[in-house]
Specification:
Blueprint: E1 7-18, H1 22-33, E2 38-41, H2 65-78, E3 82-84, E4 90-93, E5 98-101, E6 105-114, E7 118-120, H3 128-131, E8 136-137, H4 140-143, E9 151-156, H5 159-171, E10 175-180, H6 187-195, E11 199-202, E12 205-210, E13 214-219, E14 224-226, E15 229-233, E16 236-238, E17 270-272, H7 284-304
Parallel strand pairs: 1-2, 1-6, 2-3, 6-17, 8-15, 9-10, 9-15, 10-11
Antiparallel strand pairs: 4-5, 5-6, 7-16, 12-13, 13-14
Helix pairs in contact: 1-2, 1-7
């Protein structure tokens, strides 16, 4: 970074929020209604925006992720939140504040909330985009209900995919198949899958068959497995490169960020929400709740300072 070309803003915000997902937006709205100075950075995209169906969010019978985020941004702006479409490149911790940096500007804040989320790792499958979010899914909690009574294929590259297949069979449908390439499962999983009559196929999905309706998946070896929906399980990547300079405590694998009961990381003043946290369920409504909790705690600390 060439510091001579970086503009440092003079205002110190009470809180800067990185990421305009449900968690970040809820936190921004809460803090703005406490009359705190808040800025939120929205890089665009994100897993919530790509969701076509949100049906388990309290108060909404059904909506798209894009509509949820658009409405949240309007709410935040209504209460005076500054919203910027910029990409954050780094966050620097000072004694009593943070520098939040883009490629050409530095902003200061007393507190930072990070809600930049995670990205699902999508396999390279021909025609995937034709079905994404409609009959190609990546989240059992989000879209499993749409698989009720359907012929489902689970595809993945780890033992997690086997767990997904077993969960799908127990909750949603009797007709589940599992395809994985070169993955050796423990004996107890092999037995459990056999007991549930889940066919396990060694292979790689190369192409999804169908036009508007999925009819099957073609493997690299030419075999076609009939299915109406595909549940993908290939892991995910955290959107946290801009935090690389910070000494944040992470889980035993060094991957997800550890937080306390109010969603504060090991670095005082920096809160982490949603998909970056060590947690099982990455749900929009859970992230929103985390945002509210973090905002209330930040406001309490400002009042006590």
């Amino acid at each position: 970074m060439n510091d001579s070309k970086v503009e440092m803003t003079s205002r110190i915000y009470d809180c800067i929020v990185v990421g305009a997902g449900p968690g970040g937006l809820q936190a921004a709205i809460h803090l703005a209604r406490f009359n705190r100075g808040v800025m939120i950075f929205d890089r665009g995209g994100g897993s919530t925006r790509s969701a076509i169906h949100l049906e388990n969010y309290l108060g909404l019978l059904s909506t798209s992720g894009q509509d949820l985020i658009d409405t949240g941004i309007m709410q935040a702006k209504k209460f005076g939140v500054r919203v910027e479409r910029k990409v954050i490149t780094r966050v620097v911790s000072n004694d009593d504040s943070f520098d939040v940096c883009t490629k050409d500007m530095n902003f200061k804040a007393r507190f930072v909330i990070v809600s930049s989320g995670a990205e699902e790792k999508l396999p390279s499958i021909k025609n995937l985009n034709n079905f994404f979010g409609r009959s190609f899914f990546t989240c059992v909690s989000c879209d499993g209900y749409r698989c009720v009574g359907k012929k489902v294929l689970v595809a993945g590259d780890s033992i997690v995919a086997a767990r997904v297949a077993l969960a799908m069979k127990q909750m949603y449908t009797e007709d589940v198949s599992l395809v994985m390439a070169g993955v050796s499962l423990p004996d107890d999983y092999v037995a459990a899958l056999a007991k549930e009559k889940i066919e396990v196929v060694d292979g790689v999905v190369e192409e999804l068959i169908g036009d508007k309706t999925m009819g099957g998946a073609r493997l690299q070896n030419g075999r076609i497995i009939a299915c109406e929906l595909l549940m993908s399980s290939f892991g995910y990547k955290l959107n946290d490169d801009f935090l690389s300079e910070l000494p944040l405590e992470r889980d035993i694998t060094g991957f997800e960020i550890l937080t306390n009961s109010v969603n504060e990381s090991s670095l005082t003043g920096l809160y982490v929400l949603g998909g970056l946290q060590q947690q099982e369920n990455r749900q929009a409504i859970i992230a929103a709740g985390q945002g509210a909790v973090a905002a209330i705690d930040i406001n309490r600390r400002i009042l006590e300072s």
